[in-house]
Amino acid sequence: MVADKNNLMDDILNYTIPENQIGIWWLGQSGFIIKTPNGKITVIDAYLSNSAVNIRLDLDRLTPIPIQPEELICDYYICTHNHIDHFDPETIERLKNKDSITFIGPRNVVKAFQQLKDPINNAVLLEAGETIQFRDISLTGTFCIPNKDAVLDSIGVIFQHRGKTIYHSGDTGYHPFLEYIEKFNIDLSMMCINGKLGNMNYSEAYLLCKAIKPKIVIPCHFDMFVNNFENPNLFCQLIEYKKTGITCLIPEIGIPIID
Fold first, then answer.
1. What average pLDDT does range 169-195 have in this prediction?
2. Closest by CA position to 107, among listed 138, 161, 53, 150
3. Structural domains of the chain, with CATH
């Protein structure tokens, strides 16, 4: 089943996820939707506007918006930190049915939720090293190397559901300590590769992949802004050349990845 890019949210809602698998859709940059077989939808780091251009002209969005915020339907909405391409006030403020969504993030995100024009005061705090449980979904915050002290408490996220484990790196530089994530037995990882503004470059992302050994890795954070590009093929070619046994999948907007 191939998703219709013009009605992506409908396609996601209508897509049946087989038992013991997980469906993943890329939203561009570091944004992803995760859907479980029972239909629960988790959103991570969605940037669904062009609001960053109001900060600097070189942050004009270069890729189409795959889902309008008003169309986004989810149960859980996670932000790994409060940079605008991960925590986008315009995206969040335009969401419908916010009362039925559980919002999640570290301290800098929870504070940002409370400072919105329409404050979200019931957000759930998730710190590095902590785990929170929502029925059959558990979320664990992971350590990050941030680029500024304003986001010192940035997190990555371990998403677990019925034996499937997914790791979203968030924004992080490389550090050997991150190799502790191997103990989670990662099935699939989304990993930043842009190599700018403090993030891992593709060769550092390879080092982390080599250490934590996900079965599948999806590069991200390479597509959105003119001065923040990277070629994801370089990352996948390195993964293949080094004979890691890891499958590298370059995501495409509208095309589900089922694992």
1. 97
2. 150
3. 5-258 (3.60.15.10)
